[in-house]
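Priority: medium. Attachment 1 of 2:
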């Protein structure tokens, strides 16, 4: 069955893309837990940005005013006044929007062995968000975690897989100057002698075409098939997407 455009009409008019990104991880988890060896478990992880904000007014109402004893010190003594900061800058430290499936090894205290990342528009909309996504994937690979990236976002250009390769100092001959914005890629790193070797499986995606199957590595010599087409179609059926 073909890949739909979940970010434009008519599909987006009927079912928002957030619904697919919420349902698809559940279908992938169900699929994987049927085929994973018994000591492995797949779990969904969905996080929509920052969930806690500090309300300054509430902070003051709670008694933390300038004259509060807690400001002055526990015994009423004046608190130490630190010098002015050497830098004051506006930065964005908000949490990422994550649509992720994690696979853990139950024998090794639930050690993370694989992560499947469904790219969201927020992951691609600003340079700092793209850097954060790429840095996260690179850190996972450094720890020997298999990382699969699936990007079906049609409202943002850019290829995070290509940016990940740039980040780790590599390049994929399959990526031209016009790297596809829709793609699926599997990545893993192995210790080879005294160095860490990167292996990837890259597939460009196209609307109206089926999705590929990626290798999901659980260990250096153990892999299962990540059948994106089957889980995607099941998610579409569950959401009544034609």
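Attachment 2 of 2:
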């Amino acid at each position: 069955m073909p890949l739909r455009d979940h970010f434009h009409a008519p599909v987006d008019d009927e079912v928002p893309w957030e619904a697919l990104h919420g349902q698809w991880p559940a279908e992938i988890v169900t699929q994987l837990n049927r085929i994973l060896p018994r000591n492995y478990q797949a779990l969904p992880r969905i996080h929509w940005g920052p969930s806690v904000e500090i309300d300054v007014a509430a902070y003051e109402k709670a008694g933390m005013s300038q004259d509060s004893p807690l400001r002055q010190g526990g015994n009423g003594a004046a608190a130490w006044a630190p010098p002015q900061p050497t830098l004051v800058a506006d930065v964005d430290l908000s949490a990422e929007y994550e649509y992720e499936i994690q696979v853990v090894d139950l024998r090794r205290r639930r050690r993370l062995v694989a992560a499947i990342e469904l790219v969201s528009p927020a992951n691609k909309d600003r340079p700092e968000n793209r850097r954060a996504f790429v840095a996260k994937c690179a850190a996972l690979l450094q720890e020997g975690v298999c990382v699969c990236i699936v990007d079906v976002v049609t409202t943002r250009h850019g290829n995070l897989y290509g940016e990940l390769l740039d980040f780790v100092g590599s390049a994929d001959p399959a990526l031209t100057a016009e790297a596809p914005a829709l793609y699926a890629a599997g990545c893993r790193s192995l210790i080879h002698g005294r160095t860490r070797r990167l292996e990837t499986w890259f597939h460009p995606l196209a609307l109206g075409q089926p999705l590929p199957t990626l290798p999901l590595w659980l260990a250096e010599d153990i892999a299962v098939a990540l059948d994106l087409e089957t889980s995607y179609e099941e998610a579409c059926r569950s959401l009544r997407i034609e």
